[in-house]
Structure formats: structure tokens, C-alpha cells
Amino acid sequence: MRILYVWLLGGVTTAPWSHVGVTAVIALVGCACALERTRRLNALALGDEAAASLGVHIERERGIVIVIGALLTAAAVAAGGLIGFVGLIVPHVGRVLVGPNHDRLLPLSILGGGIFLVLADLVARVALAPAEIPLGIVTAFTGGPLFLYLFRRTKQDYRF
Domain segments of the chain: what residues? Predict the structure, then answer.
């Protein structure tokens, strides 16, 4: 029952090293495939017509990107459980810092997500030591208010 509880609230303390190795391989391959597609992602961000005129096979590229994202998500959830807000907040903060160019945004999101997760895990371990707060709770307390701020900011930016 405890393992289910940890998985539902997210955490990296119960992941066996054999799972870490498999997850690392999937993450490295998936991130490499995503980084190789940054130019096509930039073209897709311009819209279908612009991307097609730049030579991007729109449906094929969308399918490949969805598969890459699904594999990376599945590996992360299998290893760490349901750790919320990391994949939602980090790319949005990265977009504010470096703009929409995927050549810079994707590497920053990958590194930023890892750094955010390590810092959240550190807080989870030391905040109430010797007890440990579930990692998903720490990321929710950090990511929830930040998400609301970004949502409010975006809503104000798009007023007519």
C-alpha cells in the first residue's frame, strides 16, 4: 500500500536502480530525438501553411513528436510516479526566459526540469526531517501558485 501511496504522490526514493537505468536510456534517446527536431518544431509553431511551405511533413512530424512525448512521459511516470507541475511550469518559465525558439527552449526545459525536480526533492527530504514530504506535494505547492500567476499574466497580455 505504501508503494501505491508514494507512486500516487510522486517520489524518486523508491525507484530501484534497474529502473533508473532503463529510464535514463529512454530519456536520453527521447531527448536527443526531440532536440534533433527543434527546427521543425519552430516551423510547426508558425502554423500549418508556413510549416508546409518550409518543407515540413505536418502530420508525420506531429505524430513523431506525440510519440516522443508519450514515451518520455511514460518513462518518467513509471520511474517517479505522478509528480505534477514539472512538465507544465518549467517550459512556461523557460519560454519567458528565452522566448519561443525551440533551439533554446527545449534544452532549457530539459535541464530546468531536472534541476527543479532535484531542488524539490531536496526540499522534500530536509523540510520536515527526519520525515519526508512526498515530492508531488512539494511540486504542487511550488507549481500551483506559479501556474496561477502565469495564467493570470497570460490572460492580461491577451486582453483586447
Answer: 14-81, 82-155
Cα Rg of the chain (Å, integer): 18
Global pTM reads 0.83
Distance between CA 132 and CA 126 in Å, rounded? 7
Per-residue pLDDT of the chain (160 residues; tens, 9 = 90+): 777 777 777 877 777 788 888 999 999 999 999 999 999 999 999 999 999 999 999 999 999 999 999 999 999 888 888 888 888 889 988 998 999 999 999 999 999 999 999 999 999 999 998 988 888 899 999 888 888 887 787 666 644 3
